[in-house]
Design a protein that fits this description.
Elements (H helix, E strand, L loop, with lengths): L5 H15 L2 H18 E3 L5 E3 L7 E2 H6 L2 H6 L4 H20 L5 E2 L19 E3 L4 H18 L7 H16 L3 H4 L16 H4 L25 E2 H20 L4 H21 L1 E4 L3 E4 L2 E2 L5 E2 L12 H4 L7 H10 L7 E4 L2 E4 L8 E2 L1 H9 L4 H12 L11 E3 L2 E6 L4 H14 L6
Helix pairs in contact: 1-2, 2-16, 5-6, 5-7, 6-7, 6-10, 7-11, 10-11, 14-15, 14-16, 15-16
């Protein structure tokens, strides 16, 4: 069994129905929570859990953690569900130990995936696009499971090995041009799938932040230092410091995490913010350390919009609010509006396509119950008649969508339902 306890789900569904006053939203929530995890999660003989990203036969470190967020909210009263979630974490940790630069993995060493990419591939690796968030999500998942369940089997020997591997990469990539062994090239018709300079990427100068080859969208970064990814890393390094101190009794590991967090925080403050002519201080999406910066946001999280969700900024922080105003306006080149809605999209999908993930993040970071309700109703009304979330939908025609089934988007809808009902991750 890989699903949620029916009684736990029934209680949560009733709270969602009461909070929204909408039976259709409650029914969509119940269906997604009941079907989403069993459809993607497979318990393996070694006790770990393999999680498909949806319609692709591979496990993304980012997606497999993000898909679990609504289940984390409810797992305290469901020991069997806890076993499944801890199994996901343990598989993620094993994957990081195999290759901390990879973002997606096969269930076995079957050699499936992007085998023609010019990088150091392994038969375990489906794709080796290095993304800073891929190292952050499993550590966050470990911390949340440890805090929520109190179980001693959450943090085991696998965690220390993976944490050290992640730290080594994050530290190295502060000086990518001089120290990084990572190279990546893919020869297809999408420039965003590959890195220039023989796979090294755009030139950068040190900022204190950690470099990332690709964004959470799996598109190549323009300027190397992805600010929302570094925001997430800062928070996660704080989690790692706590685990090192309270569970592992490893002062050296905790000190490394603390030092790296400090340099990243300084880098974000010095290089990752911009003085906007009308909004004041705002966060940039990407910078390169030479003065180049990109003011935008992408639907995939961690995003700038999701900074309160990752724990980097309070929802009422002035710099975050100024940034939010920019992101939810035409100044963000990927903010789209039309007859059926407005929201943030991505260069990863066609123009004028809004992502349900971004709408859910907008609601989850809002301080307004009315805004959350409106966004839930928008998500309800833009499924193209399918009753479930997609990767993206056209602003003027929700029946025109990408990816018929996108497990991560369904999970984000469910998390927004739970948050609106007063059930949320702390």
């Amino acid at each position: 069994m890989t699903g949620i306890d029916p009684e736990v789900l029934a209680r949560a569904t009733e709270k969602v129905r009461q909070a929204t006053g909408d039976q259709v939203i409650a029914d969509m929530f119940h269906r997604s929570m009941a079907e989403n995890l069993p459809a993607v999660a497979e318990r393996l003989p070694d006790g770990t859990t393999f999680v498909l990203t949806g319609d692709i036969p591979a496990m993304w470190l980012r997606d497999s953690a993000a898909q679990l967020r609504p289940y984390l909210v409810l797992c305290a009263d469901d020991p069997a569900l806890q076993d499944v979630l801890i199994g996901v974490l343990h598989r993620q940790l094993e994957y990081i130990a195999l290759d901390p630069y990879a973002n997606a993995f096969n269930k076995t060493a079957n050699g499936a995936g992007h085998t023609t990419d010019e990088t150091e591939m392994s038969p375990w690796v489906w794709e080796r696009k290095y993304e800073i968030d891929s190292l952050c999500y499993p550590i966050e998942l470990a911390y949340r499971l440890w805090r929520i369940t109190g179980r001693k089997d959450v943090i085991d020997d696998r965690f220390r090995v993976a944490a050290v591997a992640a730290l080594e990469v994050l530290e190295t990539e502060r000086d990518h041009d001089a120290k990084s062994p990572y190279r990546f090239q893919r020869h297809d018709d999408r420039p965003s799938d590959s890195l220039i300079r023989d796979g090294l990427g755009q030139p950068t100068q040190r900022t204190g932040m950690s470099w990332s080859a690709f964004r959470p969208s799996d598109d190549a970064t323009e300027h190397g230092f992805n600010v929302p990814g570094n925001m997430f890393a800062s928070v996660v390094l704080g989690y790692l410091e706590a685990i090192a101190s309270e569970v592992l009794d490893d002062a050296a590991l905790g000190d490394r995490a603390k030092e790296l967090k400090a340099t990243i925080d300084d880098g974000i403050a010095q290089f990752g913010t911009v003085d906007h002519p009308t909004l004041g201080r705002v966060y940039a999406y990407e910078v390169d350390g030479t003065g180049e910066r990109l003011l935008m946001d992408d639907a995939n999280m961690p995003s700038l919009l999701s900074a309160p969700m990752t724990g980097f900024a309070a929802a009422d922080d002035p710099t975050y609010l100024a940034t939010r105003s920019l992101l939810l306006s035409p100044e963000n080149p990927y903010y789209y509006s039309g007859t059926h809605g407005a929201g943030i999209g991505s260069p990863h999908t066609p123009p004028d396509h809004i992502w349900p993930i971004a709408l859910a993040v907008q609601g989850l970071t809002s301080t307004s119950a009315d805004e959350r309700q409106q966004l839930l109703e928008l998500l309800r009304d833009t499924t193209g008649g399918t009753g479930q979330m997609h990767e993206s939908f056209h602003t003027d025609d929700p029946a025109n969508f990408t990816r018929e089934w996108f497990s991560w988007a369904n999970a984000m809808f469910c998390e927004l339902c739970l948050s609106h009902a007063g059930l949320k991750l702390s």
